[in-house]
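chain below, 220 aa
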Amino acid sequence: MKPLDLTARIVVVSTFLSMVLGLTAFEAVARADTDPSAMKPFVIGPKIRAGGRFDNVRMCVASPAGAKGGPAADISLSAEFALKRTVALEVDIPLFRPIMFGAAFQMLQLEPSVTLKFRHIGAGRVDLIGGPTLGLSLHYGPDYNSESSGAGRTDSFFAMGPMLGGYIGMDFKRPAEKYNFQLGLTPYVEPLFGINDPRNHRGVVVGGLLDFQFRFGRVQ
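prediction:
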């Protein structure tokens, strides 16, 4: 299988999973409107993410060749499933970066994650949220010494590794509405290892993202 074929398949799978999550969410909300006994605590919505990272493995398309890291941004789809009133599990599926990188730079950077969120219920309209994050980082493309195109672009390789991090944020409640807003920070670290890589790339990614999350569904 050609590397680009594998990249395309991963992008298709991630997009399909996002569509499934979206359809499930709208179906759940619709049932809750007509059948109160069917109501399940479920929130879904887009997340706009921006930050920066140190990265001594992968090429950063926003930095010059040889730079170890640079700015980071993404738009993802998140779905949150309440386990009880003050505990929820959030699934985050990146969309913008894997699709844009694949189309514009013949690269793959895909980092799906799950976060266990603990809620401290405040006296006012803001709750504090925090908890651990676990994910998987998948990479196909050149290393940080490469140019993004032309003769200076080096060979591409596969790499992967775990994503370990956490989340702390503020949830701005709107009890009378079906949507609200959450602002948070996600620091993380990712050890990366080359897969079937002749140059045996190894390294680490350390970064942080500021998350702007729009939440639709049955909110607190």
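Residues 3-34 form the longest helix (32 residues). The first strand starts at residue 42 and ends at 55.
thats it, cya
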